[in-house]
Structure formats: structure tokens, C-alpha cells
Design a protein that fits this description.
Bound molecules: FE2/S2 (inorganic) cluster
Strand order of the largest sheet: 2-3-4-8
Largest sheet: 4 strands, antiparallel
Radius of gyration: 13 Å
Order of helices and strands: EEEEEEEEEE
Number of strands: 10
Helix content: under 10%
Length: 103
């Protein structure tokens, strides 16, 4: 595992899912205040791009734009079918202003 910078806090708009790539991994990045959550961008159901989905602030989840399963940004677990598998969650470290993802 390596820590890879995906940018600075200012590169990510609060509450707006954003696509990023690091070390060949496709990532969905969601900044919430001074915290940043990163999950795999590919929905485990049918590989829709989760960064094109909606951030659900009340549930701290990302909603798949294709079939609507919502994945916890903390555990990766889906709330309801059709997705049944969790999406991978990547550990994030904020170092000063840098956003580092463990991939
Ligand atoms: Fe995401 Fe179907 S592709 S729930």
C-alpha cells in the first residue's frame, strides 16, 4: 500500500462528488468540511460511476446514479438492493492541505 496525493483540500468542493485517479485506481472523492471520504468509483452492482451520483449528507452516503443504491462513505455498505456488495473504502490522511489516499 502507498499513500498517494490526489490534490489539496481546495481542489474538492464541499459535498460535491468528484472523480479522481491514483495509482491506477478509479476513485470517488467527497469532501465534507475538513474531512475527505474516498471510495472506489465503480459501483459494485453494474459499474456505474459513483462520482456522478448524489451525496446524501444526512446518511453520509453516495447514491449510485444508475439504480439508486446508496453506499456509506464510512463502511462502503449499500443501504438497499440492487447492490448487495460493499464498495471499497480507501483510508484518507489530510497532511496540511494535501489529501493523501492509501491505495
Ligand atoms: Fe449502481 Fe446498479 S449500477 S446500483
Amino acid at each position: 500500500m502507498a499513500q498517494v496525493s490526489i490534490g489539496t483540500l481546495g481542489d474538492f468542493e464541499d459535498g460535491r462528488p468528484t472523480f479522481a485517479e491514483a495509482d491506477g485506481e478509479r476513485l470517488c472523492v467527497v469532501r465534507v468540511g475538513d474531512r475527505v471520504h474516498v471510495v472506489c468509483d465503480d459501483c459494485p452492482h453494474a459499474e456505474a460511476s459513483l462520482s456522478e451520483g448524489d451525496f446524501l449528507a444526512d446518511d453520509l452516503a453516495i447514491e449510485c446514479p444508475l439504480h439508486g443504491s446508496a453506499f456509506s462513505l464510512e463502511t462502503g455498505d449499500p443501504d438497499a438492493p440492487p447492490a448487495t456488495e460493499a464498495v471499497r473504502v480507501f483510508p484518507v490522511t489530510i497532511d496540511g492541505d494535501d489529501v493523501l489516499v492509501e491505495v
